[in-house]
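Quick log. Single chain, no ligands specified.
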Amino acid sequence: MTQVVFAVLVVAGVSRGAWAQDDKTTAEALFSEGRRLMAAGNYAAACEKFAASRNLAAGLGTTLNLADCYEKLGRTASAWAEFRDAAATARQTGARDREQFARNHAASLEKTLSRLTLNAGKLEPDERILRDGAVVDRAVLGAAIPVDPGSHVVEAVAPGKKKWSVTIDVQPGSQLAVAIPALETDAAPLAGSAVPVKRDDSASASGRGSTQRIVALGVGGLGLAGLVVGSIFGLQAKSNWEDAKPHCTNYPRCSPEGLSLGEDADRAAVVSNISFAVGIAGLAGGAALWFTAPSAGATASGRRAPLSVGFDGSQILVRGTIE
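-> predicted structure:
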């Protein structure tokens, strides 16, 4: 088996810095909105803003505000967890006052926590236990875990088995246990009802080839567009430099107008370079997809698997396997 990988760098590292700055700016805006909503008593909306802000740019102040918001909303377990996290962060940064504040709140909340224990006997090898849609680690079973007061849904699912679920209402400070029963066999699929269907590998390969060639044209079109944009901004950069020269004796010793034109030329040149890189990557990826698409006559023993194209924030990746 031969692994074919094409990877082309198309975005400079400075882009990551720009995105990080955008995230920080958005986080600050969300934090400010959360504070405004808290002051207005709209705790549910405020908690959403703080959580979104913390996910973009984690900070001790944001975590403390989120914990305080959860506490006011009555989500004691969530508040307890956030205060503990804030205390750990404050200790690492040497913020002793904030550490003590967070620890005191966590200790006070711990006395009022609601706890839920999930008990299960023998589980199926591929059985999953879920609480409110999230998979519960098997190590958690049998342990009293803090949960927020309110309604919670516990489910047990496994292939070939009937789904089991129960909705429980957790009261503040309550200690509850749920016993998860053995799952029953799902009798819906009848034995012998499945009719084996012989796969037409030639038709399958033809369909994959057609789809891959369509993708190839799209990727190639993106590449062509990148070259066009790169050319336009390249000409713009050249024009700006020509306009700046009469205003400069020895760049950057220029008049304000000359400096402004020089900066415009720099920006246009950066866009041109990135666009050319995207264009070259797109044309290379399109060509790779086109020429490696399986034909209608490909067989299961000698077919070429279609390549896939992806973008991870810094690269266009074209990946596939030839057997």
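The chain has three domains: 13-110, 114-180, 201-322.
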